[in-house]
Design brief:
heterodimer, A: 533 residues, alpha+beta, D-Maltodextrin-Binding Protein, domain 2, 2 domains, twelve-stranded mixed beta sheet, B: 314 residues, mainly alpha, peptide transmembrane transporter activity (chain A), transmembrane helix (chain A), signal (chain A), Peptide/Ni-bd (chain A)
Chain lengths: 533, 314
Amino acid sequence: MSSGIRSQHSKVFFGFILILCAAIFLSGCSQNNGASRSSGSSSEENTSATSVSKDITIIHSLPNDTLDPHNTWITLRAGVTETLLRLDENMKISPWLASDWETKDDRTWVFSIREGIQFQDGTPLDAQAVKASFERGIADSKALAAALKIASMEANGQQLQITTIEPYPAFPTELVHPTTSIISVAAENQMGKEAFNNAPVGTGPFKVTSFTPGSEIHLVRNDDYWDGKAKLNEVTFKFNADANVRTLAFQSKQADIVFHLSPEMLTSIEADNELSVSSVTSLRTHYFTYNPASSSVSDHRVREALDKLIDRDSIVQDIMLGHASPANGPFNASLPFGNREGYQKLDEAGALRLLESAGYTKGSDGKFQKDGKPLTLKLIAFTGVNPELPLIPQVVQSEAAKAGITIEIVSVEYPEVYIADHTDWDMSTSSYLTSPRGDGGSFLNSAYVPGGSYNPANIQVDGLEPILKELNETGDTEKRNEITQQAVTVINKALPHSYIINPNILVGINQRVTDWKPGAEEFYIVTHTLDVK
Amino acid sequence: MVRQSFSRIIQLILVLLMLSLATFLLMKLAPGDPVLTILKANEGAVSQSDQEQVREQLGLNLPLVQQYGLWLQGVIQLDLGKSFVNNRAVWDLMMDRLPATVSLTSGAIVVLLLISVPLAILGAKYKGKWPDHLSRLFALIGASIPSFWLGLLLIYAFAFKLNWLPTMGSGNVRHLILPSITLGFVMAPEYIRLLRSGLLDALSQEYVRAARARGIAEWRVIARHALRAALLPVITIFGMSLGALLAGSVVTETLFAWPGLGSMVMEAITQRNYPVIQGYVLLTGVFIVTANVLVDLSYSLLDPRIRSGRGRNV
């Protein structure tokens, strides 16, 4: 091969690399200039031209691949869509797109849809539109179909009558859930499904301008919003699953509201007086599940002893750095249906007495034993999403060791799957949102009824069945709260679980944000009242 | 030539088949239940009968062989199935994410070249002297840093402390800088080492000495003669890393909320979204195999002896 051709090839090759590097370098430089200009102008906007453009950046932890309102919470959170009913500050159900509602019998509900509301595409909101929206949701989401249990709907002007498949007094609680968002099916038909799921049309104060799956949504104000024009012009709603990056974005002032900060990073945030952190009571409960088939913990006295050995105060202070509350039942004590009694404090003496009454004696090594067998328990630890979860078993393990009980910790990714398949365990960490819709019914029905989705250990509590039956037949909220509390009393007596803590949600808020505070339900994030200084 | 291409295609299909079968079996062996995700069980009660119904609808109750057969049948008809979580076609989901991954890959390659070529040349030219030590120290540090840590460090320095660049997200070239450096930096050490030893080898060859003797400037000798000879082994590795990069760098994309294939599959794995994982693995396979074919082709471009069938022994 001639050297002329060879050198020509090499020239082409190196030339290509050089051009590539130069192009990227130059574009990087020009973008840098452009960007510094734009960041300069945005800070000017903040100080001098606030009335012209007001914008905000929010970061949440859960990435989204779609904006399909019936398959994700994000469109409601971002203020694009709304539901028929909503939760108020006290977690009580209140009207929203429906002005009021009544029940005709235990399966039939009539909702009055608020007059004078338009979707963002200009079509009016009437009962027919709501019906079409539910029909679309049921067809598109198996979860929604299973949750709503709708048999038929009749639309008449602003009146929508819904009949459920079975008696369903808790039906209104389902209608506050973000995936029951009301959307304009007319807009979807016009835009096509794919385009609609990238920029859905609802009744909310903000409209989607662009969406990058897994990364961010850009929103602009809907000037025709029915409940008063929003204070902000633009909102950028981002997602990032990494708590460190979210915190750094908050500290660098690149985001104004950031969800789910980790407690250990709070000290550095508190040092900046432009930033604040709101610690909100959550609807989640961390707890231990006891194996009903275990020879040791099937004894009520052993469970009670272990419950007394959980140092809830230490877990709240040392692991959660104060951002949690000790749990005294499945539901947060501050909720209307929460348990009013105090929580179990660390009581080693009480635990020792109980173990002795259960026939356990301390051996020469200081360890409890019965019939020559030491009291050794296997604890299945959840390595899951919350960083504090794997630490809780360690605190309990050390308290138990001091009392003379050996706890072996086995970490698994999905405890539900493990404990459904195995019998060789005694305790397991669990963590659930126990009242996501301002009602405890769904948790009680799935955690204490055999076959329920939160009941992989098949726990059954004596005397609970008639109470749950009554709860499932009651629609009145006050009455439901009362029955829920009764159920919790029965459960706490049987002690199938040890409730540990309700972790708080930590939300970083820049001081320039006004008229906004995070709620326990984490539903209503972008609102029409949200504003910046 | 035709026969060669034909056998290559058969090879490609076999590799992809094996890959998809292995992924399918591993996914089924791993714990976790997609039905609970589909029914969004973490948000509320789900009855056993609802679960059974969904399992039946999706064919998850069928024997494994049949499930795989059905998936394969779909693939032959160019249908990769739908995401369990949001009903979107897997192909569309991946095509939404591909451009972001391609731009991140290009960024990472530029960073890789900018770091490794000069450092390798310095190392080879000043063998045993301080530039060489510096380049080797750099390679050692680069090889020991985990990408998530480097990413966080860069965010801390350039986004938080200096506030020059965005912490996360996508949109313009500024967003691309930190993730590209993270990816490129972590990959660079391997290339520095390979390129440096290749250069050293080439510089000791007869033709280089002859070129020097002819009075050709040193940089010309390195750039035109030695570097080209040193590139061959580098290109082989490059083919593999290109495939891996295009498949999405899971950690970096997740850290920077970069909307590429890596962050997509990360999410799919946590949700046990089988069709998306399967589709991703298939696409990854295609990328890697294609990258390798391109590498083979580039050999002949760089080394005419291969093209003329005179063997590849350099």
